[in-house]
Model the fold of this input.
Amino acid sequence: MHYWTNTTNYLAAMFVLLNPIGTIPIFLGVTSNLSTPRRNQTGRTAALTVFAVLTLSILAGEWALRAFGINVPCFQVGGGILVLLIALDMLQAKHSELKQTPEEARDAEINESVGVVPLGTPLMAGPAPSAWRSFSPTTPRPGSTSAS
Done:
């Protein structure tokens, strides 16, 4: 019974972190000038990018942090500080100082990799799902009766 509860909680958390519903308007905006087959290909590319990034974080995330001498608590503190700074910036409701030049806009229109960046990563498979998946104590395991 605990396995199914943990699995449901895990899948719900991943759904919230990946935010596929919030990505729909961005996807439609980025691919508005593409044909239907090209839009479908971009969606598949984004899905494969998300799968690859999360799989890589599962298999090598903890190893990569250890290689750089970063332990999980330090990673959690750093991530918490980053989230705090983003939240404080959002509360101030400032307009971004960054602007897109016409040349950059043209490049973005003809760019074939919008399925990878910005849709696949960092939008869907950004730092939060990757880190959470790598270090989640609630990863469901068949045969286990507890969350850890």
Summary: The chain has one domain: 2-135. The two ends are 15 Å apart (CA to CA). The mean pLDDT is 79.
